[in-house]
Amino acid sequence: MKNYLSKKAREIIPYTAGEQPADRKYVKLNTNENPYPPSPNALRAYREYDFSALKLYPPLRMDGLRKAIAAAEGVREENVFCGNGSDEILAFCFPAFFDPDGKGVAFADITYSFYPVFCDFFNIPTHIVPLEEDFTLDLSKLAAAEAQGVVLANPNAPTGMGIPLSEMEAFVAKNDRIVIVDEAYMPFFGESAVPLTEKYGNLLVVKTFSKGYSLAGIRCGYAIGDKALISGLERCRDSFNSYPVDGVCQAVCAAAISDAAYYAEKNALVISERERLERELPLRGFTVLPSRANFVFAKHAVKDGKEIYLALRERGVLVRHFEKPRISDFNRITVGSASENDALLAALDDLLKN
Ligand code: PMP
């Protein structure tokens, strides 16, 4: 049969999201969701939403949501951009800040694996900067790349390692190029670069409701930066889809971000469970990278990474394994609730017996 697809659609290798299996009930520690429910106010906003409003398009400028985000982040509404998950915002960033015939974008060899897919999709050249042996990112190497700009995840994924705010500021200050900082996991670190956005016109910070706000299912993210950067994102969005964030989502996320105390308490629990895994896994022969995120990246002294992934899966515990150079010995394990982490440790004890 004749092939009606474009060359791009035929050839691109899409991003592979972590599996969301339906075959049985798993202890699901593979996609870095928050183990706790959304805040009571967020759930109330959902229940009390005026569903008759669904016949209309949602608020075009998302004023209510942007106002709530601006208040929570201590910035002005004009500095806030919202999208259908931070993945969508990252997707807009590539055409907004990088030219196909330009100098390209620099990022680490081991980082969020969606970045190279976006580059491929938008035909943007890449500069891949290897992480050091210990998986730290040497920012001076990123700075040395002859690129139009950089994108980095802080904390990084899948390593979980974080860059302190002071180092980030020094990097942004001496790099007069666009710097996109993907802070999907920042609620578990607490060194956000958002306060720097007022001072540095080259800094864009991208955040999400998926992890720190327990709302992965609703698909909402936001970016904060200088008005000129936000306007570039808006121009790309409005050339693609004028209404990416639906009305229910706007109401629920505005309520969630106004519930700082609830989420501070829940995210502190995630951090203390992360610390427990960082103590417990080494007792079972694992090396664990120092994590600032809601997951740990762990490698066993003897057992192969894939073998552990499969043996956990058989025991009903799902973690994420990447069949990629440098990291195939590791598994990325989302920090679950205390009982989910108990189940993980019990499954590991069982499989390590053999
Ligand atoms: N950035 C990083 C580093 C991530 O791991 C993820 C989650 N896969 C995202 C962004 C996207 O998150 P979302 O689209 O749910 O906001």
How many domains? The number is: 2
Number of distinct beta strands? 12
**How many helices does DSSP assign?**
12
Under the CATH scheme, the architecture of the largest domain is: 3-Layer(aba) Sandwich
Residue stretches low in confidence (pLDDT < 50, at least 5 long) are none
The level-1 CATH class of the largest domain: Alpha Beta
Shape: globular
Structural class: alpha/beta
How would you write the strand order of the largest sheet? 2-8-7-6-5-3-4
String of helices and strands: HEHHEHEHEHEHEEEHHHEEHEEH
Features:
three-stranded antiparallel β-sheet, Aspartate Aminotransferase, domain 1, 354 residues, Aspartate Aminotransferase, domain 2, 14% strand, seven-stranded mixed β-sheet, 2 domains, globular, alpha/beta, binds 4'-deoxy-4'-aminopyridoxal-5'-phosphate
Structural summary, described in words:
- The chain has 354 residues and is α/β, with parallel strands linked by helices.
- The chain folds into 2 domains: 7-37 and 261-353, Aspartate Aminotransferase, domain 1, CATH 3.90.1150.10; 40-259, Aspartate Aminotransferase, domain 2 (3-Layer(aba) Sandwich).
- 37% of the residues lie in helices and 14% in strands.
- β5 (149-153), α7 (165-173) and β6 (178-182) form a beta-alpha-beta unit.
- α2 runs antiparallel to α9, α3 (63-73) runs parallel beside α9 (247-257) and α4 packs across α8 (227-237).
- It is globular and about 55 Å long.
- The N and C termini lie far apart (51 Å).
- The mean pLDDT is 97.
- Bound molecules: 4'-deoxy-4'-aminopyridoxal-5'-phosphate.
- 4'-deoxy-4'-aminopyridoxal-5'-phosphate is lined by residues 85-87, 112, 153, 157, 182, 184, 208, 210, 216, 221.
- 4'-deoxy-4'-aminopyridoxal-5'-phosphate binds at residues 85-87, 112, 153, 157, 182, 184, 208, 210, 216, 221.
